[in-house]
């Protein structure tokens, strides 16, 4: 149900609004009431209502100030505000509208009908936001997760691939500095909950971590599995004094402590976290992530947040496993659904640890890294992994119960067998799917310059592999297909008659009008001018 908060300094007005409609018919529950903006602000922080109906003029804090503060904290869309006003306060109502208020009601004209109409309008606005965000999440989140898994584990093939994918996902990496944190959530009550409720608890907790972190500074947040997560804090600028004095480490500790206190208060969930090194470029985020994972191993109940330099002092630097050592093989295995490459890579990793049975912490870390990669790089990765380990009460999280290198190796081998079978089942369909998506992308971006390298980078695969896929699963090669799409578009533009040949060539991303004419003649058997003349005979 949607949650409604009523804010008015007159208790009779609150009672009147409560009794005016059957709120259950609108799928709305009145979660609380408040007598002023300050009290309402605390309730909004605690209960996160979807709709706030507030008077404009109130003691302590006005409705106008309440709306302004909420917009600064939570953005322009949530919660949705309906303001209550009197005729003499209408100038304030007009100011409130500049804060993206959904509707306003004049108290003296308030009836069940006018209230119902306002509620219908605000519900329609909420649904539009939900539909938009739902569509965006469905389309973008799988790519978002894959992007950050590649970034954290240094799996990008080139800086160009990183730049193109971050641009397409509208991610800003123009900051002056970055610090990565790696954390694990814990909850005393979670173990007694059914799996579905455990998932719901930690998903809600992760959402709160994401929202609270962003209040302190720009931050990217990624859920690695149900309990584990990564945060990338982004600094606008970094002074040399801050870098040398490690002030940023103390600042991040303070932020994490504030988030943890709030999380424990509302969900009874706590977390411990490792803080990585400061880097001034996105390419250094992977190193910061590796440091943060090492630092997390040093945390305990008395020290929930550990800085990476603590690891260096305590000689625990080599307690984690850098998965980027196998990045080429793992990336190729997942992008091509190649069971042979995956099997060999995991066999190599298992063989490495079989020779070093005392390297338990590193073996566990390697398995967790592969687990995170699988969850993020596969569509519906978490569901797939849950199915793999459905016979184990702990599910895929049984990896955390393995207590020796031998047990970790057995877990990895079981994982590998089932993942290889999945790759076998999906291989051909996946390749056809990739080609279909690339063709769709080409058609949607036909007016841009489309090189094999650039398009491959957008889809996170190698140029050679994309070229092979087109040769095998399409009637023409990549370049031929791009040219055919551009020439088809050019014919439409020629027929419209508004543009000259050189203008069309430039619009469609050809390097010159001469080259455009050459390609056109090769595909159509005549030059653009001859084609145009033929249309008017």
UniProtKB/TrEMBL annotation:
Which positions carry the signal peptide feature in this UniProt record?
A: none
- Residues bearing 4-aspartylphosphate? 55
Q: Which UniProt keywords apply?
A: DNA-binding, Phosphoprotein, Transcription, Transcription regulation
Q: Which GO terms describe its molecular function?
A: DNA-binding transcription factor activity; sequence-specific DNA binding
Q: Which residues form the HTH araC/xylS-type domain?
A: 436-534
**PROSITE patterns to which the protein is assigned, alphabetical:** HTH_ARAC_FAMILY_1, HTH_ARAC_FAMILY_2, RESPONSE_REGULATORY
| Classification via Pfam families | HTH_18 (PF12833), Response_reg (PF00072)
Query: Which GO terms are recorded in the biological process aspect for this UniProt protein?
Result: phosphorelay signal transduction system
Which residues belong to any copy of the Response regulatory domain?
Answer: 3-122
Tell me, in a sentence or two, what this protein's role is.
May play the central regulatory role in sporulation. It may be an element of the effector pathway responsible for the activation of sporulation genes in response to nutritional stress. Spo0A may act in concert with spo0H (a sigma factor) to control the expression of some genes that are critical to the sporulation process.
This chain's protein is named: Stage 0 sporulation protein A homolog
């Amino acid at each position: 149900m949607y949650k409604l908060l009523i804010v008015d300094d007159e208790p009779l007005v609150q009672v009147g609004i409560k009794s005016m409609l059957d709120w259950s018919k609108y799928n709305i529950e009145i979660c609380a009431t408040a007598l002023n903006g300050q009290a309402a602000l605390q309730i909004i922080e605690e209960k996160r209502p979807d709709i706030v109906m507030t008077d404009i003029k109130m003691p302590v804090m006005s409705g106008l100030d309440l709306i302004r503060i909420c917009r600064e904290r939570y953005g322009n869309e949530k919660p949705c505000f309906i303001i209550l006003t009197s005729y003499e306060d209408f100038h304030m109502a007009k100011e409130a509208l500049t804060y993206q208020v959904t509707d306003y009601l004049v108290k003296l004209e308030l009836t069940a009908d006018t209230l119902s109409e306002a509620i219908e309008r605000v519900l329609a606005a909420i649904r539009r936001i939900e539909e938009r965000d739902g569509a965006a999440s469905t389309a973008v989140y799988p790519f978002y997760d894959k992007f950050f898994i590649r970034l954290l584990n240094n799996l990008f093939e080139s800086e160009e691939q990183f730049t193109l994918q971050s641009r397409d996902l509208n991610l800003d990496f123009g900051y002056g500095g970055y610090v990565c944190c790696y954390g694990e959530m814990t909850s005393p009550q979670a173990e007694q909950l059914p799996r579905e409720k455990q998932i719901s608890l930690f998903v809600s907790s992760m959402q709160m971590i994401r929202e609270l972190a962003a209040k302190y500074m720009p931050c990217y947040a990624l859920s690695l599995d149900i309990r584990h997560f990564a945060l990338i804090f982004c600094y606008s600028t970094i002074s040399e004094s801050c870098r040398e004095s490690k002030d940023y480490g103390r600042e991040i500790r303070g932020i994490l402590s504030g988030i943890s206190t709030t999380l424990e208060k509302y969900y009874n969930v706590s977390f411990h976290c490792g803080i990585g090194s400061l880097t001034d470029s996105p390419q250094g985020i992977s190193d910061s992530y590796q440091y943060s994972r090492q630092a997390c191993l040093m945390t305990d109940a008395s020290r929930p947040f550990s800085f990476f330099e603590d690891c260096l002092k305590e000689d625990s630097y080599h307690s984690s496993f850098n998965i980027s050592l196998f990045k080429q093989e793992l990336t190729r295995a997942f992008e091509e659904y190649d069971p042979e490459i995956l099997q060999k890579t995991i066999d190599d990793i298992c063989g490495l640890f079989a020779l070093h049975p005392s390297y338990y912490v590193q073996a566990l870390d390697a398995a967790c890294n592969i687990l995170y990669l699988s969850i993020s790089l596969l569509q519906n990765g978490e569901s797939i992994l849950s199915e793999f380990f459905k016979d184990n009460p702990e599910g895929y999280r049984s990896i955390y119960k393995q207590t020796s290198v031998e047990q970790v190796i057995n877990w990895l081998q079981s994982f590998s067998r089932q993942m290889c079978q999945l790759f076998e089942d999906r291989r051909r369909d996946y390749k056809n799917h990739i080609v279909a998506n690339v063709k769709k992308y080409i058609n949607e971006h036909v007016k841009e310059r489309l090189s094999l390298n650039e398009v491959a980078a957008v889809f996170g695969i190698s140029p050679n592999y994309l070229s092979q896929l087109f040769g095998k699963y399409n009637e023409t090669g990549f370049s031929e297909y791009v040219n055919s799409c551009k020439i088809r578009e050019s014919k439409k533009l020629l027929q419209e008659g508004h543009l000259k040949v050189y203008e069309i060539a430039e619009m469609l991303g050809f390097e010159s009008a001469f080259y455009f004419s050459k390609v056109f003649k090769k595909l159509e058997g005549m030059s653009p001018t001859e084609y145009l003349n033929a249309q008017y005979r």
